[in-house]
Design goal:
single chain, 505 residues, four-stranded antiparallel beta sheet, 26 strands
């Protein structure tokens, strides 16, 4: 543990041990050495408790390890004990990092409770950092950034299960000494957020547009020079020297640039209203435009919440006017659109927005499943992409594999006797599903044909079930008859078909 020169009260416990929000039987195992196999992972974690399954995640093409895997236990107590005992245990010479597996990525991506630590002593590793910060709360993830040789880069990350624990750690440890080095501890910010936070208030380069074609660098210098010393100024021009009606003014001091923006933005010069603001890099403009677009989409979605319908399975002949005509009897339509590809061909889907949610509900009840041009419509409330993704992720997170008791075999084989089918996989540590030998009554098992020698070459099975006189034939996959129904017996094909098969041998 790093030597922290600040008194704190230890109160941390294993992440998830006493918090019902994190009780789970599935563990994420990161920082795996490239040669670690499923069997090694199973042997290590099975020492703590009964492992249901393990998996080292690999690249689909090269089959190389991706450096992480998953371990599933049969009960939460074993998972909590494994997290406490095996976290940072060396495996093939590399300490592994264990944390609870969260199927919902919003917990990880939200950034809540995530802090950044820099100026760390090179001797502080994952475990030392974990031990240091565990005094402030339950830790979900802890990592020291390392280079290719495994040496610390001097910074790391800790994510707590609550924002309160993270704030407490920041207050207590920011500016304190860890191993005689003063560290910075603060909220974790993504790169774009860091750039925005750093550059938002301080900038020297000013962008100005909506200039008249006659405006020159001298005119801009005269106008902007009143606010401070200018280091460079330019009006952008095309290849013929004609003004593009925008330019840049770079100040020596950021304070002068801020004053110029505040005073000149919106100023009218030669009957044109100037836009004056911070000069942005391309990715900064993209981020800002994306945020504006998402905000406008969210506002529109909130405005039409419950009033916007999504329709699919539309016939190609249905356009905007026809779609509006179909739904107009149910209320006032504010917008109506059939989605089309770049060539103008209908995608078979569209949107209809009503003025009130009540009108949309009435249209949904009446039109969902209605046959229009020989195709049944599918009508549902429209959802934003993020909402659909969150709903699907929530549904997926509730899905859990159901293990069958070894003593209870399935009614039918789960895969052919030759082995698992294409695309199937069996986790290490799981018993293969039981396979029932062929049973009489199904009518498809191999049988001998007169004239064939036992042990001869395999012959295609062309046997069909016999249908008793007076009984209706069964459809494949249909329910079997009751106890009083006579079981079906296999009979060979017509004799001439058998003879023809024998002649080909």
């Amino acid at each position: 543990m790093a030597q922290v020169q600040v008194p704190v009260q230890p109160q941390g416990v294993n992440a998830g041990a006493n918090n019902p929000n994190f009780v789970t039987t599935s563990l994420y195992v990161g920082d795996l050495e490239a040669s670690v196999t499923d069997s090694q992972l199973y042997d290590l974690f099975n020492q703590v408790g009964q492992v249901v399954s393990v998996r080292v995640c690999r690249d689909l093409t090269s089959r190389r390890s991706l450096g992480y895997g998953y371990v599933n236990y049969s009960n939460p107590q074993d998972a909590a004990r494994a997290l406490e005992v095996l976290n940072f245990t060396p495996l093939n010479g590399s300490p592994i990092r264990v944390m609870y597996s969260h199927r919902d990525p919003t917990i990880r991506k939200s950034g809540a409770g995530n802090i950044f630590i820099k100026n760390l002593d090179k001797a502080i590793d994952h475990k030392a950092l974990h031990d240091t910060f565990s005094a402030f709360g339950n830790i979900l993830s802890c990592k020291v950034a390392t280079d290719s040789s495994g040496q610390s880069k001097g910074y790391g990350f800790v994510q707590f299960d609550s924002e309160e624990a993270a704030q407490k750690a920041i207050e207590k440890l920011n500016g304190m000494l860890l191993n005689d080095k003063q560290v910075y501890v603060g909220p974790f910010l993504r790169k774009q957020e860091r750039d925005t936070a750093t550059d938002k208030m301080r900038f020297n380069n000013v962008f100005v547009k909506n200039l008249s074609e006659t405006t020159t660098e001298e005119d801009l210098n005269k106008t902007f020079g009143e606010f401070g010393t200018i280091t460079s100024i330019v009006v952008m021009r095309d290849g013929d020297g004609k003004s593009k009606c925008f330019g840049f003014v770079n100040f020596e001091n950021a304070e002068d640039a801020a004053k110029a923006v505040e005073a000149l933005n919106g100023k009218k010069v030669d009957d044109k209203e100037w836009f004056v603001g911070k000069a942005q890099k391309k990715y900064e403009r993209e981020v800002e435009l994306k945020q504006r677009f998402e905000q406008s989409m969210k506002e529109a979605a909130d405005k039409f919440q419950g009033a916007n319908l999504y329709i699919k399975n539309l016939d190609d002949s249905i356009g905007d006017e026809k779609l509006k005509e179909l739904f107009s009897p149910f209320g006032t339509i504010t917008s109506c659109k059939v989605m089309r590809d770049p060539n103008g061909i209908s995608r078979g889907s569209g949107f209809v927005a009503f003025s009130t949610p009540e009108e949309a509900s009435r249209a949904l009840l009446e039109m969902n499943g209605k046959i229009v041009v020989s195709k049944p419509l599918y009508v549902a409330l429209a959802q934003r992409k993020e909402d659909r993704r969150a709903r699907l992720q929530a549904q997926f997170s509730q899905m859990r594999p159901v293990a069958m008791a070894p003593s209870v075999g399935p009614r039918m084989p789960m895969y052919p006797p030759a082995g698992p089918g294409l695309g199937q996989q069996i986790f290490y540590g799981q018993a293969p599903p039981a396979i029932i030998p062929p049973q009489p009554g199904f009518g498809y098992q191999q049988q001998l044909v007169p004239g064939m020698r036992p042990g001869g070459a395999p012959m295609p099975n062309f046997f069909v079930p016999m249908v008793q006189q007076g009984q209706q034939g069964q459809r494949p996959g249909g329910r079997r008859g009751g106890a009083g129904q006579q079981s079906q017996q296999p009979v060979p094909l017509m004799q001439q078909q058998v003879d023809s098969l024998l002649l080909t041998r």
